[in-house]
Amino acid sequence: MAKKRKRRIFKVGYRQRQALGGLLFTFPFIIGFSLFFLRPFIESILFSLNELQLGRDGYTLVWKGLGNFSYALFQHATFNERFVENITDTLSTLPMIIGFSLFAASILNQRFRGRSLARMILFLPVILGAGVVLRMETGDWAYIMAQETARANYFAGNALRQILGMIRLPDAVLEYLIEVITGSPEIIRDSGVQILIFLAGLQSIPPSVYEAADVEGATGWEKFWLITFPGLSPLILTNLVYTVIDSFTTPQNQLIMLIEQVSFTGAGFGVAMAMSMMYFGFIAALLALVSVVVGRFVFYNV
After folding, report:
1. What is residue 60's DSSP assignment?
2. pLDDT exceeds cutoff 90 at 285
3. Distance between CA atoms of 155 and 148, rounded to whole angstroms?
4. What integer is the mean pLDDT of 8-17?
5. Which of the four pLDDT bands, split at 50, 70 and 90, describes residue 180?
6. CB 226 within 8 A of CB 210
7. Residue 241 backbone phi and psi in degrees, to 5
8. φ, ψ for residue 50 (rounded to 5)?
9. The model's pTM
10. Alpha helices, H only, 75-141
11. What domains are there in the chain, each with its CATH number?
């Protein structure tokens, strides 16, 4: 009687399935990065360590080591100033965008007349931020728009300073509130994608959880902090990462415009690549810090 061969069954645990699913989800990015971005990234590092000299037969690289980085940090007139301004502006607007996105998504998740129209209006700036409008914002007359916006913000800021000054708030709090109010159009414009992400997260929380909380007599405030906020914590981290990248890479970014100017009409391509590498390093370090710090408070309902 022939012995039956036992078939080996490979059991995969839940954690292994999760890891495999995450790997498959990121696999298209890994392929795309390897094929289209890895080589240009390595070449950018090489350019940042060399001086690019053009000739009849192409270009040659002259080794400079950290000379390009030294020039950008200690000799260039405006790089450090633009770098610090860019970081300060992004970090100051980051909590505004996240807070407004969460607030708007919570309102849009309610049932009321005209909800679809309200969602369309809040997402409309994202659509207008592409194509023709984006070209207009980065065109020659963008300087005129910036002047008019700065003038309007100046008068609005003075009026708000006089009104809020009667409350006798600390100067730091007063200036931050004025920045929030005068910068509200930009905050609304930059919050469209984040609102959609939060809205999807709100709709994914089971209604039965809120019903059970109602039975237990939980207030709206308690339901928000004990159910809604923990349920949205993974998406808060997602929106933080997205907002940091979007803010640091927007076409209106003054530092990116400076790097482009340096590469073609300034100190050379090598110095511009050195500036880009320092900028990239800072963004990567900031994203790692945000992921580690905020990731400790993320609740995954598994």
Report:
1. E
2. yes
3. 11
4. 71
5. low
6. no
7. -65, -45
8. -135, 165
9. 0.75
10. 79-108, 115-128, 132-137
11. 61-295 (1.10.3720.10)
